[in-house]
Amino acid sequence: MRAMRQSIDGAFKDFTRAYGDAIESAFDPIKDFLIFLEHLLINSPWPIILAVLVGIVYLMSRNKTITIGSLVALCVIGYLGMWEDTMRTIAMVTVCTMMAIFLGIPLGILMARSDRVQSIVNPVLDLMQTMPSFVYLIPVVMIFGLGKVPGMIAVVIYAIPPMIRLTNLGIRLVDQDVLEAADAFGSNSWQKLTNVQLPLALPTIMAGVNQTIMMALAMVVVAALIGVKGLGQPVLNAIANQYLTMGVMNGLAIVAIAIIFDRATQAYGKRLQKHSEVIHG
Amino acid sequence: MGEATGIEIKNLYKIFGPNGKEMVQLVKDGMSKAELNEKYNHVLGLNDINISMPGGKIEVVMGLSGSGKSTLIRHINRLIDPTDGEVLYGNEDVCKMSQSELRAFRRHKTAMVFQKFALLPHRTVMKNTVYGLEIQGISAKEAEERASRWIARVGLEGFEDHYPNQLSGGMQQRVGLARALTNDADILLMDEAFSALDPLIRMDMQTVLLDLQEELHKTIVFITHDLDEALRLGDKIAILRDGAVIQQGSGQEIVLNPADEYIADFVKEVNRGRVILVDTVMDKTKTIEGGMTISSGIRLEEAAKTFADSGVGEASIVNGDGKPIGVLNVHDTIYAMVTPASH
Ligand SMILES: Nc1ncnc2c1ncn2[C@@H]1O[C@H](COP(=O)(O)OP(=O)(O)O)[C@@H](O)[C@H]1O
Ligand SMILES: [Mg+2]
Does A227 reside within a domain? Predict the structure, then answer.
């Protein structure tokens, strides 16, 4: 048993030494984008960023309460000196969510198209969702060391399952009658996907985006353990040094942006759904 | 517009189940739907269907729920693949088309209206109506121009920007009809298109369809489980039971000579005055000159009304040129309207 463990660990280390850098450099463009976004959010004058963020919340939710709530929360965060860490966390969550969407939707579509793919991917997703989040950090750190890229990879892996699942589910739940109509008018499969399946699955897919954002946020905090900066680090610091107020304040800031993200995306999903219920007769 | 091409269905079999092909011979040898289901766990969907659907006419396929109507109509645009047999449109066998030929056929030659409307809920009336043209790759501008005409024609002008769930069932089905008509296809397939609607709205829609057909002369296949609807719309009617055609002919032929007890039961309650033509009842051995005239080809009910209005007891039946071809009297008219078929 011990011999086996040693040989696996050894082989993994060799693999890491040989390919780690190559893999890491493949992520350079994404890393560059993350750094760019971070700088943009931190270095631009804060009133502009505040206005843009609140504006986005309004455009998505079209709801006064949510918008004003976001404005107040962000102002308090800034006043208490957590602006920079919050911006780092928002940048990280944004980039990771985008990656999860870009990878998750095509995978979800593949799964919806083939029962075989579904039966292979589903157990993997089950495994991913029951695995404690720290465990993801281990192989990632071994390959990439500490820093932004391993953090991003861990977050995306942790946050992607709901994106894949709900895309698959949304497409599978599309009304068969409407699909048949698309066939009857001579749609090819791309036309069916873009005209019928994706639009009708969109509210479900948005629910997936919402869950993915929440999970990404949770994992970004945990990823502080491997050197991801943002609101997670002061929390980690607070635990190590028993700084109660610092821990609570940063914790509350995380909760605040979680609520903002959640309400904004949910309200947006609801608006999408407005015409989607089918009413007969 | 040229003469629409008819559809010829020949020896069509559909057996649902993993080994449908192997079961065809059993069915040809006379195995029944129940037996096939019991012994081999396969469902007999269609059993040796032979129907010649004339071009430019309305062919009604009637039967109770589960008799195979939807299965049959879905073979015409091959939403369902046959187990055996042919569906000919002109010289082409729909069953032998490749996937891309089939798509082209569906895009340009057929359009379909569905029982549950099957509109795209996230699209407005206009965007639903242009759907077929969009699939064909026609520019949005042209498509919307063509669609506007049909939206107006089915009475939905002003509703272009509404969403389906803002409309009543009758109006939603008008969108379904406009979507199908905008496709400008020869063949119009309607699977219980009006069955989900309230009786009054249903009558309205039947009128809309008949008016349109007068001008368009499409080859329409109309599915219904309602005999009154079948008789009102059908130039020809085929009656299905357990996946087999048990009688086909004009409405009048079916009402006057039901092929068996089952159909006789069906036609018992029919308003015969609205089905039977004066030509069937008139005395062809006599003609009279002058007096009241009734045109050939009208139904007994209308003739009875003419008699009642005029108080006359006998009328001359005249053909299109005004030439007398027979004599009809009140007694025979009323008698034919109330007598059940004898056989
Ligand atoms: N995909 C299918 N698999 C198995 N049996 C089917 C399938 N589709 C239809 N059937 C059976 O075929 C018969 C005819 O169905 P259908 O054409 O829908 O009838 P109708 O439209 O006249 O109500 C029914 O017995 C139904 O159960
Ligand atoms: Mg049906």
Answer: yes
